[in-house]
Structure formats: structure tokens, C-alpha cells
């Protein structure tokens, strides 16, 4: 008769199932995003194609914000307070550049660390909140931070902080469009790597809390450290995005961090999908591109984007990447005649791209 | 509360004293006391609404008790959250199938092992004997209900508990699947677990539980050897709502099942 015995090495028969931990590894989707950013970073950029440089810069400027939303959506939480942490990061970097140093590494570090620290108390406040309450409170956090900035003379009030010097690296001025884009690419790459590492380490915990928090707790999972870590990372990502906005505009202005802009970052993830970092990446690229294309249509731009959101919410609830993944899996199953109930063993959810 | 020397007896991993749980003006659990010894299998029965699941919830940290104490291995853990208790060896299963529905059986088992951490025990033999190895790569939510409940039990045992609370483990299972519950509970108890089973299936209770505790309206109505308790008229009345007359069948005879 089998016994409950302590074990570490699972020395079972070779063909026996093993209650072991599948290895965590980077998924194809995550690798594709990292590769795309690395290639853009190291390959020559067409400096004379200002429109392409501008559009790419718009994408990388807000990609980290979309990732900020994505990290919390892995916990089934809609984070509408992203602009608040973007503001904290952006203004911190602006003050550092004006008063301390314009070294780009220092500025990125400040824009990462300060919002992360600021996220700790807010994270502790929101740890017990779920669903609508979390969304509402994070929205209000955004409003509070926005009003605090507007009311602060030290931060320039409604005028913001202007005349921010261009960043430097080893004495080299990084002020032109291509250099700004490369900074954006580097910061986006850092953001993606942080998210990939975080989800590789915590992916099972995040997924368990999202799908069945009660069961996860019964099995011994302590939820609040995971939630707090996700919230702090989300704040850091938003802060880096805030720095990129400030760096692009050479101004830290309250209007860049309006609470309502948080809806855009949520939209990037909803449209792209929340199964892996490929979702926010695709959503950001697509919606930024569409916004640029529709910009000349004036008021119709909002209607077109709103329509896309409604369509996605109604018919593509896993986002574009999730829907493409499901369709591909369905085609493969049809072609191979395999049962739909069987799934790959290793972290298959992350591959829903 | 004061921890007495009897509380830290290693043979008594769980001691409940005067546990009460109220929801507003309703007292779902009233002053319940019990002890679980290592290897003991204690059945908890009672009619629907008797407070059995509320008792399990209060012990396991799902609900904070209004008063009373829960002492686990000599440590007062009253009102501690489920993860805390699980890390210290007290875990539970649920009345309904409770699994990570979107994940494979393998991933479900792996999560239980990871979250339990150092307490994890080998459940490969359970996986084979319950047939879960045949559906190892199947999405848990696609399994028949009975297999989902079995999976939930195996996950619970994978956390290496010293005390297991099973809330109606046989509910919803086919008759042919119920012997698997017997196997899991028996092997768990033989391995040193103290097991508390809330159940309506009297046949299962009689097979597995030498002693039972009967609850009615949140309070303990009777406690003692199973055969003796099931023959009591007040227990029969509590279950069936009728007075037993001479020659009438007992709960024991009827094999009462409220599934």
C-alpha cells in the first residue's frame, strides 16, 4: 500500500506521472518581442524617415505603460492608475535632469525606483481590493496624484517643468530623434525583460491567483506578497514610460499624465491580449498606428477606436493574440485529429499568443 | 488563550475549543469543541444547515471565528488565513469540485506542490491508483465532475498535511468512484494524518470513521463511537425530522444520503 512519504527527488518509475514542477522557460511569444526590440535597437534606423521614427517612438514611449497594465491583468485586476506612476517617474526624472544630472542611466534608474517606492503604500492600500473596487480606487489614485501635481508649485503647477536638458551618456548628447528613439527602445527592452523575468518567477502564482484565489490559498499560497510585487513592478514600468514621455517632449506637463489616458493603456492590452507580453506589444503597435492614421479624421478617430474596443470586447475576448493562438490550435487539432482536451504540459498558457 | 500541556501533545495535532461563528444575528457554529488525534478519522454529520461547512470554514481560516480557539500542533492559529494553516499542516478540500479549471492535471498537481513548499509529499501512487495518470495532460475543467473532486483531494494531500478537513468528499461522485475516497482517506490516516470528514453518505461514514460528531443547528448534538451514535433517537430526529418509534429504522439502517 502506498504511503505518504516525504520526497524531494521523485524517484518513481520512468513511465510514472511525476508531481514535479514543469520547467519555466521563456515562451516563443516573449522571445519574439525581446528579439524585435533588440533588432530595432542594434540595426541602423532610417534617420531621414521622420514619420517612421516618430511612430516608432510613440510606440516605445507607451509600451511600458501597457506592460504596467498587463502585469496587473495577469491577476485579473484592471489598473487605471498607471498615469499616476507615469507622472511620478516622469517628474522624478525631470527634477533629476534639471537639478542633479542628465546622465541617461541615472534618469532611467530614478524613473524606475521612485515610482516603485511610491507604489508600495498604494499597493498595501489596494491589496484587499478586487474587481470593480480595485479599478475604482486605482482611478482615484490617478486623480489624487494628478491634482497634487497641478497644485504643487515645486512641480510647476499647471505649467509643468520646462526646459529639461537632453540626456547624455558618457558625455555624448542624446537629443535628436534617433537617439530619443534608441533610448525608448532600450527602456522598452528593459521593461519587457523585467516583465518576462517576473512572470517566469511568479507565473504559476499569478495564474493561480487569477483563476482560483481561494484554492491557491488553501494550498499554501500567500497572495499579498505576489500582489504587492506585481503592483510595485507595475509602478516601476509606468514610471519608465513617464520618463520616455518627458524625454520626448522635453517637458514634464500634467496633461501628459491625465487620468483618462489610463484607458488607452488598458485598451492596448485588451485589444492585443493578456496571455503574454506579445499581447500588449501587438496592441500598442496597432492602436498607436491607428491613432496616427485616424488623427486626420478628427472626431471620427475616437469613434473608430471605440468601435474597435467594442468589437474586441464582444468577439475577441482573448484579444488579437489570444484569438490567433486559439484559431491556430484549432486548425492544428483538426489537421492532426487530436482531442481538444489535451494541452501541452509546460506553461502552455503563456504561449497563447 | 492559554496553551496547556495537553495542547502540545504531538498525538493531538488539532484541538478546537468553544468555537463559535456568527453571521450577524445567526450563530452558524455554537461552542463546538473537538480534538483530532494523529491517524484518527472523525466523521462530522448533521442535516443541511447544521453548521458543518461553517465549522470547517472557521477551522481552516476561510472564516474568522467569532470566539473560541483553534490549536494546531500546540500553536494557537485561531483566525489565521488558509495559506498560514496550510504551511503548518492543516489543509482542506471543498464541497464542490475546486481545481484550476483552465490548467492540465499535471499543472494542478505541480501548483499544489509548489505552493506547499517544503511540506510537499509524493502523491505519485495516488495519481496512478486514482487514474489521474491517464488524464495527466487533460485540462482539469474538462474532466468529469468526479475526477475533478478526486484531483482536488490529491492536490490537498500533496501539500503534506498533518490535519485534513474534507468537506463532503463523496458529494457528486458516482457510487463506483466512492471507493477511491476510502483509499485516499485510509492511506492518509495510515500515513499519520488526522482526518475530519463532513459527509452525508452514511455508508462512507460507517466504513471510514470509528467515531463521529453530530451537529444540529450549529451545536454538537452527540459525539462518540459511530455505531452507538447512529443508533440514538435524537440523532435520527435531527436528521429526518421525525421521532423514531419502536422498530423504526435508524440512520445506520437507512444509509442516509442527502447528495
User: Low-confidence runs of chain B (pLDDT<50, min 5 residues)?
Assistant: 244-250, 252-259
What is the number of helices of chain A?
11
Shape of chain B: globular
Overall 3D shape of chain A: globular
Reported for the largest beta sheet of chain B, the result is:
6 strands, mixed
Radius of gyration of chain B equals 18 Å
Summarize the model shown.
The complex is a heterodimer of chains A (353) and B (259). Chain A has 353 residues and is an all-alpha fold. Chain A has 11 helices and 2 strands; from the N terminus they run αααααββαααααα.
Q: Which labels suit this protein?
A:
heterodimer, A: mainly alpha, two-stranded antiparallel ribbon, 11 helices, 66% helix, 1% strand, globular, disordered N terminus, B: four-stranded antiparallel β-sheet, 10 strands, 32% helix, disordered C terminus
Written overview of the protein:
In chain A, 66% of the residues lie in helices and 1% in strands. In chain A, α3 (82-99) packs across α7 (223-249), α6 (177-218) runs antiparallel to α7 and α8 (262-272) runs parallel beside α11 (319-336). In chain A, a hairpin with a 2-residue loop joins β1 and β2. Chain A is built from 11 helices and 2 strands. Chain A is globular. With 353 residues, chain A is an all-alpha fold. Chain A has a two-stranded antiparallel sheet. Chain B is of the alpha/beta class and 259 residues long. Chain B contains 10 helices and 10 strands. Chain B has helices at 52-60, 82-87, 105-116, 124-129, 145-158, 178-190, 202-208, 226-230, 233-240, 251-254; strands at 14-23, 26-36, 41-45, 67-72, 75-76, 90-92, 163-167, 194-198, 211-216, 219-225. In chain B, α3 packs parallel to α5 (145-158). The termini of chain B are far apart. The chains are: A mainly alpha (353), B alpha/beta (259).
